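Narrative summary of target 7.
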Amino acid sequence: LYDEASRTFTLIKTPDNDRKQIKKSISHIDLFPTLLELMQLPKPASFQGFSVFDNDDTRSVFIHNNAMIQQDALVYWPWKYMITNHPYTEQKLYNLETDPLEKNNLFQKKNEILNFMENRLNLISNLQLEYYKSPHYYMKYAPPRVY
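Modeled conformation, tokenized:
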């Protein structure tokens, strides 16, 4: 889940050709709500993402990988916390502003931010797992939306 593999360039041409550069963390799930806003259409409650034009610059982005390596990550700019659960256990913390290549693991050094990131990642992950494992929830309710 390093940035070189998970970061994606996105370019959207708006109807008014207004050039805006978004400098906050966004997720793929934010693209459709953004397009719907540009088309002035309502966003369904089932969409977990937010428009990139929302004023919230402090939203976190949850990333999950369950392939050969099972990992979760949380980006809360400028911090990125990653935890690997399989085939080994490892935790990493990076400051993407000062270390964009993710070479300097600060896991042992930043206790306050690490606690925040770890708690937030656990909250988001648990909400997603609880929601999607029960048809009672996803058949009746919209998915959890966590900032």
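The beta strands are 61-66, 70-76, 79-86, 90-95.
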